[in-house]
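Quick illustration, no need to memorize.
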Amino acid sequence: MTKPSGTSFLLRCKSVLAREFGVERLAMFAKKLAPKGALLLVLCPAAVADELDTTSREALSAAYYAFEVAGYCGLVSDAVAAGFRRRVGRILADADIDRETLNTLRGKAWQAAHWEWQNRGLGGFRGWCRNEGRSAAQGFLAEPD
């Protein structure tokens, strides 16, 4: 998994730890337990890794859901599918997600798209496809190489 480097890594660490422990508590830890930020170097890799994995899981779920929506709307072309594969490949390159978790994310995204499609009723999916479906397909088409 790729982690941010240098100053951005430390800033992200402080942000994650402040959210987890609270700003006052983090300041107390830093004063009492860790000279010159050593505490951040100990705690940050795990905290940021968890945040990156959560972000990756959310991004994967969103990509799978969007692809399913585009599929229900009949908007999946070869170019859209290629953009989807590029996006998923980019996300997985930066994540540490096992096969079981990936399969679970796929299944939940498919179910969410299916439930949303069913929820639209007769003809109600047209607006869904015009808005969410088109946006999903265009997002995949715009995915960089």
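The mean pLDDT is 76.
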